[in-house]
Amino acid sequence: MNISDLQKLAKDTRSMREAGIALVVASGILAVLLFVPVIPEQSEPVKVADASPAAPDAFANVPVEAKAAIVYDLATGETLYAKNENVQLPLASLTKLLTVYASLSTLSPDTPITIPESVASMEGPHTFSEGQIFSLSDLARLTLTASLNDGAAAIASATAERESRSENEMLASAAAALNLSQTYAVNGSGLDVSSIISGGYGSARDVARLAGAIVELAPDIAEATTKSLAQAVSAGGTFFSVKNTDPFIGSIQRLLLSKTGYTDLAGGNLALVFDAGIGHQIAVVVLGSSLKERFTDGMALVAATIAHFAGVVSL
Questions:
Q1: Nearest of 149, 145, 156 to residue 113 by alpha carbon
Q2: Three-state secondary structure call for residue 270
Q3: % pLDDT > 70, the chain
C-alpha cells in the first residue's frame, strides 16, 4: 500500500467517526423530544359572573326636600345615605347640641347654672327669669327638649366663664375636640345674628357625629329629648314643665335623641339618633328643609334605614 492509499484510508476513517458522533447526538435529541412531556400553555382562569342579585337600595326613591341630609351609622362610621352631607349650612337650634356638649365636657352635671341678666334681652319667648338656678343636667334637659334659647345662653355663658374664655372660643374648642371641621358657632343658642349671619354653622355629617357624641356622653340628657315633656325644679323650688318641639317622637322606636331647629336663614333642621335594633346606633340629619318637611324628610329616612337593614326596598 502506497502513501496515497494510506492518506485516503485515514480520511475515510475520520469521516466515519464524525458521522458516528453526529448519529449519537441526533439520537439523544430525538430521545429528549420523545420522552420529555410537553407542558401545555396555561390559559387565564375563566371568571364566572356572580349570579346573586344585588341588595335592594332602600334609599333610591326616598324624596328629601332638605338641602342636605345624611344617614350615618355611628357604630361603623358608614354613610348609608347622603345628600350634600359636607356642605356647611346654618344650624339654627341644632347649635344647642354643641353648647351642651361643650358644657358637659368641662363641668359636672350637678354644676349650678344661674340664669344671667342678659337673657332678658334675648329674642323670642323667655322660660326663665334672671337669678334662677338649676343644675346643669336639669337645665340641659329642658333646653334641648323644648329648644330654649335662654337656657342655651345661660349654659354657654356659665361654661365660658368657668373656662375663662369667650363663648366663641369655648364652642370652637368643643367642635375641634370632635374634629367637626365644618362647624362653628357665633352664639350658644343658634339664633340668627342678622339677616345674613346665622348663630351657628355646620354640615349634616358634623351634626350626625355631634348628636352621637351627646348620646354617648350624656345618655340621660339625650333620652329626655325623646319624651313629650321635660320637667325640673329650680334651686328655689319653682317647677318647670316644657313640651318637646318634635311632634313625631312617638313614631320612632328606640329613639335615643331628637333635636329640632328653625330660623329664617336655616330653614327647618332636624337631628335624630335611634337604635336600628342590631347593635347599630343611627344618626339621621336633615338641614335646610322647611318647617314641616323637616319631619317628613326625617321620618322617610328613618323608614328607609329600617328597610335597609331588613334587606327590602321599603317597609
A1: 156
A2: strand
A3: 82
The mean per-residue pLDDT over the stretch 33-60 comes to 54
Cell output for 17: 467517526
Domain ranges of the chain: 68-310
Q: Which residues of 288-307 are buried (b: 16+ CB within 10 A; e: fewer)?
A: bbeeebbbbbbbbbbbbbbb
Instruction: Give the global pTM.
Output: 0.82
Cell reading at 61: 326613591
* Cell digits of residue 119: 337673657
Distance CA 258, CA 191 (A): 19
Longest dimension (CA), the chain: 150
Burial of 24 (0-12, 13-18, 19+ CB in 10 A): exposed
The amino acid present at 25, given as its one-letter code, is V
**Consecutive H or E run containing 134:** strand 133-135
Residue 238: band (very low, low, confident or very high) from pLDDT cuts 50, 70, 90: very high
Tell me which H or E stretch contains 101: helix 95-106
80: Cα separation from own chain's centroid: 9
What is the Cβ-side half-sphere exposure of residue 68, based on CA atoms within 13 angstroms?
24
Extended strands (E) in 11-127: 68-73, 79-83, 89-90, 112-114
The grid coordinates listed for 24 are: 449519537
One CATH from 3.30.1380.10, 3.40.710.10, 3.40.50.410, 3.20.20.20 for 68-310: 3.40.710.10
**3-class state of residue 306 by DSSP:** helix
Query: CA–CA separation, 143 vs 14, rounded Å?
Result: 116
Contact between 92 and 263 (Cβ < 8 Å): yes
pLDDT tens readout for residues 242-284: 999 999 999 999 999 999 999 999 999 999 999 998 889 999 9
